[in-house]
Specification:
two-stranded antiparallel ribbon, 195 residues, two-stranded antiparallel sheet, 2 domains, binds iron/sulfur cluster, mainly alpha
Length: 195
């Protein structure tokens, strides 16, 4: 039997399960499997997981297509059938299990329903709910929020807005907003939900 390196596949699976999105779970698992237990002694597993990592990254980063899903399923099926050890077969079983929903397809359409794949989401401020307190601005360490706090003697304020290019999707602003005026939406959404 091939030698085991690093973490056990069961432990990597448990860590991956802490994520909500099945595509993120699969990518996390594959990256950790490559960094540890994958020994490279048989072809379907060695080549398969490298390709699966690229295909999964395409999906989490908004470049995914149906052919990525098709390829990941093919790789997992080949690994299940032809991997030389249990680690490769278990890996294939986990990936096929995570693929058992429509979530992979939704990523091809540009949506992460669990709002975990940061390339597919944006944080936005709903102007109607914003009381111009500036708490989000103070909480943002990346200087991604522009706007002016309300001042009694001024009538016109610069509304608070999130500069998407600077936003790292850390989520700190949502935690401090007193009126739930900040929402997470699909990048492709024209308007924030809940307006
Ligand atoms: S299936 Fe097992 S033996 Fe083959 S490369 Fe993967 S970990 Fe190594
Ligand atoms: S998610 Fe983080 S980086 Fe983006 S605006 Fe909010 S606090 Fe700033
Ligand atoms: S914390 Fe909320 S209410 Fe206050 S400025 Fe930011 S978005 Fe508006």
């Amino acid at each position: 039997m091939a030698e085991q390196k690093g973490k056990k596949v069961e432990d990597i699976k448990k860590e991956a399960e802490a994520k909500k999105c099945p595509v993120s779970k699969s990518l996390y698992y594959i990256e950790e499997f490559l960094a540890g237990p994958m020994c490279g002694k048989c072809f379907p597993c060695e080549m398969g997981v490298y390709e699966a990592k690229i295909r999964l990254k395409n999906l989490t980063e908004g470049r995914g297509s149906e052919s990525d899903i098709f390829a990941i399923r093919r790789i997992a099926s080949d690994m299940l059938e032809s991997s030389r050890c249990k680690r490769g077969k278990d890996t294939a079983t986990f990936i096929l299990e995570w693929m058992g929903t429509d979530v992979f397809k939704e990523h091809v359409e540009g949506r992460c329903p669990d709002r975990e794949c940061i390339s597919l989401i944006e944080y936005r401020i709903i102007p109607e709910k914003c009381i111009i307190c500036g708490d989000c601005h103070d909480a943002c360490k990346d200087d991604a929020i522009t706007g002016e706090k309300k001042k009694g003697y001024k009538s016109g304020y610069l509304p608070f807005e999130i500069r998407q290019k600077r936003c790292t999707k850390c989520g700190e602003c949502i935690k401090v907003c007193p009126t739930n005026a900040i929402v997470i939406v699909d990048v492709k959404a024209k308007e924030p939900v809940g307006v």
